[in-house]
Structures are given as C-alpha cells and as structure tokens.
Design goal:
With 358 residues, this protein is of the alpha/beta class. The protein is built from twelve helices and nine strands. The strands form two sheets. The protein has a seven-stranded parallel beta sheet, with helices on both faces. Strands 7-8 form a two-stranded antiparallel sheet. A hairpin with a 2-residue loop joins strand 7 and strand 8. The longest helix is centred in the middle third of the chain and has 22 residues. The model has no long low-confidence stretch (mean pLDDT 90).
C-alpha cells in the first residue's frame, strides 16, 4: 500500500512543477467530482497554474462544483464542457473538438496547447440486455471502453504535448476479468451478454489498448486503468438498475459496507497520484527497463510485465494488479492485436458515418 503521506507529497510536487491542464470526463459527480476537488485543493496554496475542463451532462452540478472550486482556488481556470450522450462517439468527437479549440484560444500568447492529465469515469450500472446505440455499439460497453479510448485518441496530440508526458486514467475494474469471447468482442450474441461479461470485455480490451498506446508513444504517454475500491457515490442510485436493486443498495447494503469504503477525498487524491513518477511513460528503448525505484517508492510494473512500461493496472491503494495466467494464453493467440484492430475499425467506420457491425 502506498501511504497517504507519500500520495500527498507527490501530489504537491506535481502542482509545484508547472502549470497543469486537466480534463475530467464524468467530472460532475462521483469519483470524477472527487478528483476535481482534490486537484483544486492541492493546487490552491502552492500550484503554479491550473486550467481544468469538466465534461458532463449536468449543468447545475457543474456550476456548483466550479463555484466551490473558485472559492478554494481563485486563480484557477475552470470550464464546463457539456456532453449530450458519451456513449456516442460523435458526441465524444464534438467534446474533444471543443477542448482542442479552447486550448488553442487559451494559448494565444505563445503557450503550448496541451493536456497533462485526462481522467475518465463515465458509465452507469445496468442489469438490462444489450442496448445498442445508433452507431452500433452497446451503450454500457461504449461508455466504459469505446468512448474512453476515443477520448484518448482524439486528445492524443494535446497529451503528447505535455512536458510531463501525458497522463491518462480510466476508472473501472481491472482485476475483475472473467470470460472473453475473441470472436465477439462487442458482445452481439445475446448468450454472451451480461453484467459480468460486459465488464470483463471492457477490462481485457482496456488493458490491451492501453499497452498498444504506451508502446506506440514511448516516452510521452502513461496510462493507468484503476480499480478505485468501494467509494460511496450515487452510481447505484443514478444507474439503470430496477427499483428493487436500488432499494436494496440504499437500505440494506450501503449501511453495512459504509465503514469499509474509501473516503471520497482520499479517492480523489489517489487518482491524482497516478500522475506521479511511480507510473512513468514507457522507455524510448523498449529493451531497457526504467530504474526500479524513485524517491520513496518502487516504479510500477506495467501490465505487460515491464518495469515502468507505461500501461498500468492499479488498485485503490496504489499497488499493481497483476494480469495473472488468464492473459498468457490470449496474448499468445494474438488478442492484443485483435483488440487494437477491432477498436480502430469501429472508430473509423463510425467516424465515416457508418453503422458498426463488427
């Protein structure tokens, strides 16, 4: 476990090093909001400059968060970017275009448009059968996988412009893998579809897509897929769960597990810690591993087994989640390349205005 004093020290160094530009997708509630508030509080007394984009659907919530943040950090720049439906890649593209334009306008005096930190938490819980978007993707799987990887690829030029090396954080469920259907990655077969299988596919595909990105942009991009632990947000209440499930969570489960939950502010602080030197970009020379230690902690091992390899699976306390034997066989069968090709094909066909059927 990485202790909180180390987390706080690293976060302080992060904001003292240079002005920061951060994007929080799903930043109007839950873990996204926690992370926004944590970065603002950390920056308030010692930061060198902060520009923060909050992406979400709830304008009223965004206004309240921005108002609170300005009280804590009057010198910060906070901008709400309204999303309509992030399960649609076209909406992701529109939001990214607005951020790119805003960054260009914010740097008219010679600064470099960039994004130093991208945090993504969009998604919701559902027990229903596959619900297809008008672009041909499952709604839930799109939110937790396709739309998130689309944010990364669309904001990639800004991430690669970061002098820190761009940092990408996706909050979901590494370590919760189960079945994978290599010939049905988008889960079109109704017999394959379900809450657990949906999550499993999202985790496998995120692992492999992030590994590909880290290798293709060595030295310039660090990516982390994070299991946040139990955090008491409103995800169950705001999801697409039946009334009985919401009732059980609120009155039976939540009161029992509450003492075991990760405090919301700690969760936000630990999200920021993922931009620390413990999780560096992959070395430019892939045959050379990063030094195994930095400051008060060890450099993390990436999901492909390389020290400092640039793509990390992290649990709530900053420790690494190993891939285990489940990945060995599917790696040998070439699933990593299949996931990359499948995802890029989906992006290309939907961008061209076609209905994706892969």
């Amino acid at each position: 476990m990485v202790h909180l004093d180390i987390v706080h020290a690293c976060n302080a160094i992060l904001v003292e090093t240079q002005p920061l530009v951060a994007v929080f997708v799903g930043g109007t509630s839950g873990i996204g909001e926690c992370s926004v508030r944590a970065l603002t509080a950390t920056h308030a007394n010692r930061g060198k400059g902060l520009r923060l984009y909050i992406v979400g659907r709830n304008n009223d919530a965004a206004e309240k968060i921005i108002s609170d943040c300005l009280e804590v950090c009057p010198t910060g720049q906070f901008r709400f970017v309204r999303a309509n439906d992030l399960s649609l890649l076209k909406d992701v593209d529109r939001v990214c275009a607005e951020i790119v334009q805003a960054e260009g306008e914010a740097n008219t005096t010679g600064g470099i448009p960039r994004v130093d930190l991208l945090v993504m938490t969009q998604g919701y819980l559902s027990l229903e059968s596959r619900k297809e978007t008008k672009e041909g993707l499952d709604t839930v799987l799109s939110l937790v996988y396709y739309s998130r990887m689309r944010f990364v690829t669309q904001l990639l030029p800004l991430l690669l412009a970061s002098p820190l090396s761009g940092r990408v954080v996706s909050i979901f469920a590494p370590g919760r893998e189960g079945k994978i259907f290599p010939d049905d990655l988008s889960l079109r077969d109704p017999t394959h579809y379900g809450l657990a299988t949906n999550a499993s596919h999202a985790v496998y595909m995120t692992t492999f897509f992030m590994e590909n990105l880290a290798a293709r942009h060595a030295g310039r991009l660090s990516l982390a897929h994070v299991y946040p632990g139990l955090v008491m947000t409103k995800v169950a209440e705001n999801g697409d769960l039946p009334r009985w499930a919401r009732w059980m969570w609120r009155f039976l489960v939540a009161p029992v597990v509450w003492p075991l939950a990760v405090p919301t502010m700690e969760c936000g602080e630990r999200v920021l810690f993922l931009a620390s030197p413990r999780f560096p970009a992959r070395p430019l020379n892939s045959t050379e591993e990063t030094s195994k230690s930095a400051s008060n902690f060890e450099i993390a091992i990436s999901s492909d087994g390389m020290v400092g390899g640039g793509a990390y699976r992290v649990t709530w306390n900053g420790e690494i989640i190993p891939t285990g034997k489940a990945y060995e066989k599917i790696r040998e069968e070439g699933l990593s390349e299949r996931v990359w090709n499948h995802t890029m094909k989906a992006f290309g066909e939907i961008e061209a205005g076609n209905f994706f059927t892969g």
